[in-house]
Design a protein that fits this description.
This is Reverse transcriptase domain-containing protein. Pfam families: RVT_1 (PF00078). By secondary structure, the chain is of the alpha+beta class. The protein folds into three domains: 73 residues, no CATH class; 220 residues, no CATH class; 130 residues, Alpha-Beta Plaits (2-Layer Sandwich), CATH 3.30.70. It is 43% helix and 14% strand. The protein contains 18 helices and 16 strands. Strands 3, 4, 7, 8 and 9 form a five-stranded mixed beta sheet that branches. Helix 2 runs antiparallel to helix 3, helix 3 packs antiparallel against helix 4 and helix 12 packs across helix 14. The protein is globular and about 85 Å long. The two termini are 49 Å apart. The N terminus is likely disordered.
Length: 522
């Protein structure tokens, strides 16, 4: 029997409840009378009632949000929800109309289906550019790693029930429910009762190499990134997956990071196996550490009176276009045994998704490319997928990656030498990315130099198809604006503009905040 627990219920304060004082709403007769007679006394009465009404609305709004921010002082999620409410943001709502193939769609169910088709097709947008899906023929297949002996193969191990119980207890009960309808709150509160059954299911998945089909379905929410609301390219998909599948993924993820690799690899752990040039989704790495490393290298070059040409590479739909055959081949070359590879294959394939907005749900569509969006293992599998890129380019230039954000830079005492080295490295990178799509329109480059007399307009970088890459004087890299003089004036300018908007928001709504809440927002 499940333990019986008492839970108190508290009615939530709403804006309407906080504004019950508004019995002073201006009657229509007062407004009409003032317009008809145009007498000073009637207009004075109307203005007094109007001002009283406005003041009451402001007090009610202020009291409501003061209470909201006080209640959410220890819950960051609720705090930022209240901020969005105060700003009037509704980023997850369905647009009134969208444009698909020059056709305007207005029916909500049709719009949901169109979004699902758009997101599901993301992995196949550039299929015509992919040379092959044969793992043995693909140029990205790692050659530095030889296939290990079968008796020394790596394998996923069965899980201990204590591990599973601990993972269930740590569930964030506010997370949404997946397609399996298992509520995180239920899993958390009943963890000590059901953990043995969940452990059995997890271990059965590992030993048979099969993922339950309900764990491979995703409910996709819409997040508007900005721009026109009718353009589907301006929306980002947010996938809601099964809570149990994410727990299993996190436990498998821990196994991968703790593996003792074969001596033939000369690596002691996954962390040392991955390229040191990769900072994405790794412990003790962040956007700050990645950006600092690149900036420090540029500063060192300028201090040595060198010129540094830097290329910021943009990949289109990188996570969505991962080829499953190539990824499984790379996992095989890393040393995983047949059953483990079968588990990864089951994890990657047979997935489907639907778009869900409110009560409107689109039909499910199959997803046969890419790593699962919103998953735990997806980011790690992606950086394994592109791991050998840095080692290929290292002899020619310096390279750093944060997931798919790739930057190449070459330094030399002569500007032409730096640009020529960068051009050569870029062509090599293009060959390595034959299974991914390079977005030349968003791939930019900067020349960091202290020279003043150079004709910068004559300097060019081109792709293999002849497209000239645009040169910028400043560029935003991992949240930091860098400019060609590296004096950070662009970063300071962008930051002050952003802060000015936030300060105006605080000033305009100052009656809705206590000082502590203002500090948290700032």
């Amino acid at each position: 029997m499940f333990p019986i627990k008492n839970a108190g219920l508290r009615t939530k304060s709403t804006l309407g409840t906080a504004m019950n004082l508004l019995n002073c709403i201006v009657p229509g007769k007062t407004w009409n009378l003032a317009r008809q007679t145009n007498e000073h006394a009637h207009w004075l009465t109307f203005r007094q009632l109007r001002n009283k009404c406005t003041s009451a609305i402001r007090r009610g709004k202020a009291d409501f949000y003061l209470q909201k921010f006080t209640e959410s002082s220890t819950r960051p999620g609720d705090f930022w929800k209240a901020i969005k409410s105060l700003k009037g943001e509704r980023s997850t709502c369905l647009p009134a109309s969208i444009l698909e193939d020059s056709t305007v769609l207005t029916e909500p169910s049709v719009i949901c289906s169109a979004f699902n088709r758009h997101f599901a097709a993301a992995g196949h947008l550039f299929d015509k550019n992919v040379h092959t899906t044969d793992p043995q023929a693909d140029p990205c297949t790692p050659t530095a790693i030889s296939a290990p002996l079968s008796e020394n193969s790596l394998s996923l191990t069965i899980l201990d029930s204590a591990q599973v119980c601990n993972a269930l207890i740590k569930i964030d009960q506010k997370k949404s429910t997946g397609d399996d309808k298992l509520n995180p709150f239920f899993l958390k509160t009943s963890a000590t009762v059901i953990f043995e059954y969940i452990t059995h299911i997890f271990n059965l998945s590992i030993t048979t190499g099969v993922i339950p089909s309900t764990w491979k379905t995703a409910h996709v929410l819409l997040l508007h990134k900005g721009g026109d609301t009718y353009n589907m390219n301006n929306y980002r998909p947010i996938s809601k997956l099964s809570c149990l599948s994410k727990i299993l993924e996190s436990l498998i993820n821990s196994q991968l990071k703790s593996f003792s690799w074969l001596k033939s690899f000369n690596h002691l752990s996954l962390s040392s196996f991955l390229s040191p040039s990769q900072s994405g989704f790794r412990a003790r790495h962040s956007t700050i550490s990645a950006a600092s490393l690149v900036v420090n290298d540029v500063i060192a070059a300028l201090d040595n009176k060198q010129h540094c040409a830097e290329l910021f590479v943009d990949l289109s739909k990188a996570f969505d276009t991962v080829d499953h055959h190539l990824l499984l081949n790379k996992l095989s070359l890393m040393g995983f045994d047949h059953m483990s590879l079968q588990w990864f294959k089951s994890y990657l394939t047979g997935r489907s998704q639907c778009v869900k907005v409110g009560k409107i749900i689109s039909p499910f569509l199959d997803i046969d490319k890419g790593v699962p969006q919103g998953s735990v293992l997806g980011p790690l599998l992606f950086i394994i997928y592109i791991n050998e890129i840095a080692s290929t380019l290292t002899p020619f230039c310096q390279v750093h990656l944060y997931a798919d954000d790739t930057v190449l830079y070459c330094s030399a005492s002569n500007i032409d030498s730096a640009i020529n080295s960068l051009q050569l490295s870029f062509h090599i990178l293009e060959k390595q990315l034959s299974d991914l799509k390079l977005n030349c329109a968003k791939t930019k480059w900067i020349l960091f130099t202290k020279a003043r007399s150079t004709d910068f307009n004559s300097l060019k970088l081109c792709s293999t198809n002849g497209t000239t890459l645009e040169r910028f004087t400043s560029y935003k890299y991992l949240g930091i604006w860098v400019d060609e003089k590296l004096d950070f004036k662009s970063h300071v300018k962008q930051l002050t503009q952003k802060l000015r908007i936030k300060l105006f928001f605080l000033y305009r709504n100052r009656c809705c905040f206590y000082f502590s809440s203002q500090k948290t927002y700032y």
